[in-house]
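Re: that chain you flagged

S.,

Sorry for the slow reply, it's been a week of failed gels. I finally had a moment to sit down with the sequence you sent. For the record, here it is as I used it:
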Amino acid sequence: MAARTRTYAVVGLTFVAAVTAGCSGSDSHAGSGSPASGSAAVSGQNQPAPTESNPPGDIPDNQVYVAYRPTGGSYTGFTLKVPEGWARTSQGDSTAFTDKLNTVKITAASASGAPTVSSVTNAVVPQLRSQVTKFSSPKVSEVTRHAGRVVLLTYQGDSAKDPVTGKVVRDAFERYAFYRAGHEVDLTLSGPVKADNVDPWRIVSDSFTWR
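Prediction finished late last night. Pasting the structure tokens below so you have them in one place:
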């Protein structure tokens, strides 16, 4: 009888120890998952807008393009194709065509000489840095389009805040500087980072011709 009593006692102590250990382990895990006391929240105010894994802004493959020939402004001696149906706005010597999150902007100006990689790097990049929110990743190069050799500046920046949703989109920009006989035409193409607009932007930039 005494032996059986000792057996029950040992089993009872073992059960109590197991329960105690389990409770202690649960408290430990709960504590490790709690936020540290007094930790500061990380502010995103100084960070660029995040890029999306499946961003909106892809221009459809069946998009139709129409010829644009400026009829006003200080210089009208060029033409190019723009996407049909996009909203058009003009201000001075600049005209923009916009649809959803994509924009084609054309600006004409007088110029004393042809733009170069050096002139765009030293003059245009600092100017855009002060104008474009969260400007970054500028890269200047010479490329060939049907109109000839042009200076291409690519960069990124945040879009303006959507007046309805308040959302800001991270945009990619391509800025082509065309030049002939004292006249420069800057063609800027923009849309969400990671949007697949390589072919549409090539169609527009390749379509530029002098008249």
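What I noticed first: The CA atoms of residues 102 and 204 lie 13 Å apart.

Talk soon,
D.
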